[in-house]
Amino acid sequence: MVYFQVMDPALFLPTASVDEAAKVFINKIFDVNPKIGFDLIEKAFRFSWDAHKDQVRKSGEPFLAHPVAVALILAEQRLDPVTIAAGLLHDVIEDTSVSMADLEVQFGKEIAILVDGVTKIGVFQVKSNQDRQAETYRKMLLSMAKDLRVIIIKFADRLHNLRTLKYLSPDRIKAIATETIDIYAPLAHRLGMARIKWELEDLAFKHLHWEEYKEIVAKVVATRSEREAIIDSFVIPLRQRLEEETIQTTIVGRPKHFFSIYRKMMERNKSFEEVFDLLAIRVIVNSVQDCYHVLGIIHSMWTPIQDRFKDYISTPKSNGYQSIHTTVFGEKGNIVEMQIRTWEMNQIAEDGIAAHWLYKSGEKEMTKDDRALVWLKNVIEWQKDLTDSTEFFEFFKIDLFHAEIFVFTPKGDLISLPKGATVLDFAFSVHTDLGIHCIGAKVDGKIEPINRILRSGQTVEILHLKSKKPSIDWLREVKTPKARSAIRRWLKNTGRQESIDLGKKIIQASYKRLRSSTPFNDHVPDLLPFLGIGHLDRLYELVGSGEMPISRVMQYFQARKIKKSMSSNVVSRIVDTFTGRGSQGILVGGNDDLMVRFAKCCNPIPGDPIIGFVTRGRGISVHRENCPNVALFSKDEERKIEVSWDSGDQKKYTVDLEILAADRPGLLHEISLVFSEFGANVLEGSIKTISQNAKSTFKIEISNRNQLKQIFRRIQRIKGIENISRVKDYINYPQENMSE
Description:
By secondary structure, this protein is an alpha+beta fold. It folds into five domains: 9-193, Hypothetical protein af1432 (Orthogonal Bundle), CATH 1.10.3210.10; 218-351, Beta Polymerase, domain 2, CATH 3.30.460.10; 371-489, Ubiquitin-like (UB roll) (Roll), CATH 3.10.20.30; 492-639, no CATH class; 653-731, Alpha-Beta Plaits (2-Layer Sandwich). 48% of the residues lie in helices and 15% in strands. The strands form six sheets. Strands 1, 2, 3, 4, 5 and 6 form a six-stranded mixed beta sheet that branches. It has a four-stranded mixed beta sheet with strand order 13-15-14-16, with helices on one face. Strand 5 and strand 6 (335-342) form a beta hairpin. The longest helix is centred in the C-terminal third of the chain and has 34 residues, at 481-514. It is globular and about 95 Å long. It starts with 17 loop residues before the first helix and ends in a 14-residue tail after the last strand.
């Protein structure tokens, strides 16, 4: 394994003077990069020496050994003096009395920003360790957007910490190694930094699973001569052929890394020998034209495996990785993967954004056409809408681990999406407005719903209507943070007004039942301070979104014993008698049913006795009174709300029916005539015959319960009908958590 060099700890013996130590350190930097300027680096070294001079690491060595090791790792990546200086200073704000202002005075704003970007969020700025961790990641990402070198310094910092992890407590070792596997290694992969990723993974693996690590290392060493012989059987004839074709090339065997072997063993549930059969050879050439020339030569010499060919040159990965991968059979049945790339592609593949920084001649800002940083741009965009640290942390982790698929637009543009992405994800990736109004898509010419999972190579044309709008259920249909963020933003902006309107209706209905002699608005000046709320619209929003139960609002009136007015009571009853509004509460079914959902567990239709529950962020959920799930939620009286059907409702509702009958010719036709006679639209239907019995199921669209009763009575008169029943869908749907 070729990793970054390990710092010589003898460099900083306690007896060494700052002048002697600085001289030795500068010589080390010179060995790595003789063309670099040293003045700024030496100044940073002396400053760090003074800041950390009284500090000692857990290993017993001077604390300065750590920032120096970080600086050497950065120097090996051929980074500039500013980055190396920031590496030397990266702990002074967090671990010494030096402030960011002090650092800016001594070294300028650029270095101060880099150091601050690497520094963790303070202990007292957030509520918990997890919040602090999540906010530290968020801060790091935002700092990366300003200057790419922040994450490069952070990776170097984590690398050296892992190399010296054995001196910490077992719990701390496990926490750091786990965080590395969960966050830093996938982040390095996302940013194309393969060398960093490999070492991070192997060092963390060593600390997390020592026995398994030791066993794999022993087996890799034991099979080395065998592997080299197999690789030589491919490399020698290939090198000879390329010399004949006068193609300048470097051919090397690509060793597998210990953690990647272990992960494949776990994922495939196979032994070491079973996953170690795929060897790899890397062919590095001078031009893209040579890459394809070499590919043709390899395929003429060995038989390729058709489904193992990947052209990442014409379609680069989202982290900027480019290479041609082809897997071939050798003469003795050996299988070898060939990776073909140019020298620039090879450096970008190994060093990722560090190489990007070099090739872009010192650019620090992200550029619009930089594929390697598209993912980072997307993360920075969607995190703006996530105010909850835990939610941000989970989405961040999930997005790091997604494998990629590549999907085409009708014009042939390539869109990269995470594996498992849906039509809706694709729509939002093309344009936010297209996602907002998406109703489905043509996938390879076939119409598919918004939740259809996409596969690599498909061509997708989004179908949309201006009248279509997102619902909270869409959050279950998307995998990408960009889509999730856009949906949440739309729901937050548009849904807020719906929550306000719904909350106002709930409060007015509840206050009306008090039959108070005073208008509700007269109580607002005292009610808002009682609830700790600054504005009336905010109160309506909290009640409408379910964040504040209506019973909490009513406590104010109960505590003050608001008296009912007899005259008002009598007048209200008279009005209710003539208007029919006495017990309606919230009307559902018509145009007034803001944020009202009909529970899938029981599918209520107009005419069914119903009950409502206020849910957080999802408005009112309406159930049939005999729904089995009602018992689960009825204990939470605070969330109950009176609901009734809107008599002017013109909507259509779906009902599932099951019909049992003696099988005979014409049965299905007669049932269908009944549906047609009473104006029911049949959405789905099926019939199964067992012996002499027929079982039919239908999904029909109707207006109300009375219409359904007429259908029931008419079908029951058909010859041979044994039973007709309304299917209770709660068996097929997950229960809703009304306490959320």
